TrEMBL record:
GO molecular function list: proline-tRNA ligase activity
Pfam families the record matches: HGTP_anticodon (PF03129), tRNA-synt_2b (PF00587), tRNA_edit (PF04073)
Domain (Aminoacyl-transfer RNA synthetases class-II family profile): residue spans on this chain: 38-463
Gene that encodes the chain: proS
Catalytic activity: tRNA(Pro) + L-proline + ATP = L-prolyl-tRNA(Pro) + AMP + diphosphate
Residues in coiled coil: none
Name of the protein described by the UniProt record: Proline--tRNA ligase
Family under the similarity heading: Belongs to the class-II aminoacyl-tRNA synthetase family. ProS type 1 subfamily.
Annotated organism of origin: Clostridium cibarium
Record flagged with keyword Lyase: no
Length: 571
C-alpha cells in the first residue's frame, strides 16, 4: 500500500474524549472514528488489525474442530421469550419493532439462536459433539460505554456454542476451547490469564474468564503469589477472621445523633471498624432483603445474588424502602427488629463479639450485640476477599489486581436446551437435552487490550502477528530518483514474499514520516536515504534497538529473520 493513496489521518493532539492509552492511540493513529457514544467506524488501518485477529481466531477455532456459522443479528422476540430472557435482559437489549408491530432485538449474544439451530438440525447422538462459532457484531446498550472499543455498544465478538450428549463430552469441549483460547491470545501477543469466574446458578468450576491485567480494567482479579490460583473477585471465597474471644455483655442502646457512616461511628465510639457490623438493605426483584458484613468489608453482590437464587435485579434499596424495613433514616439499620424477607449474615459476623449495629431507630445504635443470642439469619460468604487473605487452594497470601475480561468460557449444561426443548435421541432411543457450553472472545476489545499492553510515548507497538502492515519503507526524499527506485524495488520484492508493506511515498519531511510510522506502530522500518549510493539502507525495529545499516540485497533476509523470531511463516 502506498501511504499517499491510503485514507488515514493521524492526529498529533490527544483527543479530549479519550482517557486511556488504547483509546487515545486508536484515534491518534487513525484506526477508528466515533459515530455516537459507544459506536465506532473502523478506518482501513484499524480494520486490517481486526481482520488479522479474526484470522487467528478462525484458524484456531477451525483447528479445534469448530465449524463457522453466521446467524442473523436481528432476532425475533419469540426465541428470547422461550428462554425467559426477553424480560430478564432488561435495558441492555436494543429492541425494535417491524412494520407489523412484531418485536425484535439486536442480538447481545446468541445462546437462543444456536440452541434453536441445534434442536432443528441435530437429531441423534451420532452427530455429536458439535461446536458452532461465528464472528459477528453484537449490540448491547451498556449503562456506561467507555474507553473507546473496550466497552462499546456495538462490538465484534467471536461466540461459539458446543453441543454434547453428556457432561463428560462437555468437559472435553470446554477443555478444548480453553486450549484454543490460550493459543489465540498467545498468537495475538496478549498476555491473558485464565481465571475462575462465577457461574451463577450452574455453580462449580464451570466458568472461566481470560483476563488481561490492566489498571483500567473493570474487574478485580484475585491472584495467589505462591500457587496458580486466580479468580475473579466475584467468585473467590473469603475466609472469616475470628475476633478475640470476649464474654458476652449486655446489649446497650446508645444515642448517636447524626452519626451514620462507619467513619463517623469509628470516631464516635473511639474504636476500630472491626467492631461494627453494617446492615445493607437491597431490593432483590422487589423483595427487600438485608446483608450484614463487618464494618470494613464490602458486600459481594454476585455471592448475594447466588445465595438468593434466581434473582435477576439486585439494587441498593431506596431511602423509602430502607425506612419501611427499619422505621429509621438511612444509616441506622441493624438486625434486631428489622422487617425484611431475608437476612443474610456473613459468616465472619458470627465470629465477632459484642459488636455495634444500627438500632432501627433514627439516631440510635446498639452496643454489645452478639450473633445467635440477639438475632439469627442465613449464614454464608457474602463479602469480597481482601488483599492478604488466604488463598483458597494453598493457604498463602493473595493479591488483587485490576483486569479486563477478553474472553469467557462457560459450561451452560442444559439451561437453554431444557427451557427451549432442544433434544436429541440417545443410544437407547431416549430423548435427552443437549449438554451445552458457550465461549466468547471480544475481538474489538482484544484489539484495544493489545494496544494497552504494547505501546510507548511514540505510539502503538503492534506484535508482528496482527500488525496492519508488517513494515514500512520510508524514502527520505521522494524527489530523489535513486532513492525512489530502490524503495519501489524493495516494495515489490517484499510484497512478492507475502509481506504487507506500507510505502510512505508522501512528499513530507522524513521526521514526519518516522513519527507516523511509530504512532501507527508498524513493527519494522526500512529507511531509504543518502546511503543508497553506497548500496545500503537503514533497518529499525519498532520495539527498540539501533538503526542497522544493511545492504539493499539483505533486506528480505533480515525481514524473514524477524518472522522466524516471532514464529511466523512468510508465505
Ligand atoms: P463485561 O463483564 O465486561 O460486561 P460480559 O461478561 O458481559 O463482559 P460476555 O457476555 O461473556 O461479556 O461476552 C464475551 C466477550 O465479549 C467478553 O469477554 C468481552 O471480551 C466482550 N464484550 C462484552 N461486552 C463488551 C462491550 N460492551 N464492548 C466490547 N466488548 C465486549
Ligand atoms: Mg457485560
Amino acid at each position: 500500500m502506498k501511504m499517499s493513496k491510503m485514507l488515514v489521518s493521524t492526529l498529533r493532539e490527544v483527543p479530549a474524549e479519550a482517557e486511556i492509552a488504547s483509546h487515545k492511540l486508536m484515534l491518534r493513529a487513525g484506526l477508528m472514528r466515533k459515530m455516537a457514544s459507544g459506536v465506532y467506524n473502523y478506518m482501513p488501518l484499524g480494520l486490517k488489525v481486526l481482520k488479522n485477529i479474526e484470522d487467528i481466531v478462525r484458524e484456531e477455532m477451525d483447528k479445534a474442530g469448530a465449524q463457522e456459522f453466521l446467524a442473523s443479528a436481528m432476532l425475533p422476540a419469540e426465541l428470547w421469550q422461550e428462554s425467559g430472557r426477553w424480560d430478564a435482559y432488561g435495558a441492555e437489549m436494543f429492541r425494535l419493532k417491524d412494520r407489523n408491530n412484531r418485536d425484535f432485538c439486536l442480538g447481545p449474544t446468541h445462546e437462543e439462536v444456536f440452541t434453536d439451530i441445534a434442536r432443528n438440525e441435530i437429531k441423534s447422538y451420532k452427530q455429536l459433539p458439535v461446536n458452532l462459532y461465528q464472528i459477528q457484531t453484537k449490540y448491547r446498550d451498556e449503562r456506561r460505554p467507555r474507553f473507546g472499543i473496550m466497552r462499546s455498544r456495538e462490538f465484534i465478538m467471536k461466540d461459539a456454542y458446543s453441543f454434547d450428549k453428556d457432561e463428560e463430552g462437555l468437559d472435553k469441549s470446554f477443555k478444548n476451547m480453553h486450549n484454543a483460547y490460550v493459543k489465540i491470545f498467545n498468537r495475538c501477543g496478549l498476555d491473558a490469564k485464565c481465571v475462575e469466574a462465577d457461574s451463577g446458578a450452574i455453580g462449580g468450576a464451570n466458568s472461566a474468564e481470560f483476563m488481561v491485567k490492566s489498571e483500567v480494567g473493570e474487574d478485580d482479579v484475585v491472584f495467589c503469589n505462591h500457587c496458580d490460583y486466580a479468580a475473579n473477585i466475584e467468585k473467590a471465597p473469603s475466609t472469616p477472621e475470628e475476633a478475640l474471644k470476649e464474654e458476652f455483655k449486655e446489649v446497650k442502646k446508645v444515642e448517636t445523633p447524626n452519626v451514620k457512616t462507619i467513619e463517623q461511628l469509628v470516631e464516635f465510639f473511639n474504636t476500630t471498624e472491626k467492631k461494627f457490623v453494617k446492615t445493607l438493605i437491597f431490593n432483590a426483584d422487589n423483595k427487600i432483603i438485608a446483608v450484614m458484613v463487618r464494618g470494613d468489608r464490602e458486600v459481594n453482590e454476585v455471592k448475594v445474588t447466588n445465595a438468593l437464587g434466581g434473582v435477576i435485579n439486585l439494587n441498593m434499596a431506596t431511602p423509602e424502602e430502607v425506612a419501611s424495613a427499619t422505621s429509621a433514616a438511612v444509616g441506622f439499620a441493624g438486625p434486631i427488629g428489622i422487617k425484611v424477607s431475608r437476612l443474610l449474615v456473613d459468616e465472619e459476623v458470627t465470629k465477632m463479639y459484642n459488636f455495634i449495629v444500627g438500632a432501627n431507630e433514627t439516631g440510635y445504635h446498639f452496643e454489645n450485640v452478639n450473633y445467635s443470642r440477639d438475632f439469627e439469619g442465613e449464614v454464608g460468604d457474602y463479602r469480597n476477599i481482601t488483599v492478604g487473605e488466604k488463598c483458597p487452594v494453598c493457604g498463602k497470601e493473595i493479591t488483587i489486581s485490576r483486569g479486563t475480561e477478553v474472553g469467557h468460557i462457560f459450561k451452560l449444561g442444559t439451561k437453554y436446551s431444557e427451557s427451549m426443548n432442544a433434544n436429541f435421541i440417545d443410544e437407547n432411543g431416549k430423548e435427552k437435552p443437549f449438554v451445552m457450553g458457550c465461549y466468547g472472545i471480544g475481538i474489538t476489545r482484544t484489539m484495544a487490550s493489545v494496544i494497552e499492553q504494547h505501546n510507548d510515548e511514540n505510539g502503538i507497538i503492534w506484535p508482528l502477528s496482527i500488525a496492519p502492515y508488517h513494515m514500512s519503507i520510508i524514502p527520505v526524499n521522494v524527489k530523489d530518483e535513486e532513492q525512489m527506485k530502490v524503495a519501489e524495488e524493495l516494495y515489490n520484492s517484499l510484497k512478492e514474499l507475502g509481506i504487507e508493506v506500507l510505502m510512505d511515498d508522501r512528499n513530507e519531511r522524513a521526521g514526519v514520516k518516522f513519527k507516523d510510522a511509530e504512532l501507527i506502530g508498524i513493527p519494522m522500518r526500512v529507511t531509504v536515504g543518502k546511503k543508497v549510493t553506497e548500496g545500503s539502507v537503514e533497518f529499525k525495529l519498532r520495539t527498540g534497538g539501533d538503526n542497522e545499516l544493511i545492504k539493499i540485497e539483505d533486506v528480505c533476509k533480515r525481514v524473514k529473520e524477524e518472522f522466524e523470531k516471532n514464529n511466523l511463516k512468510v508465505v
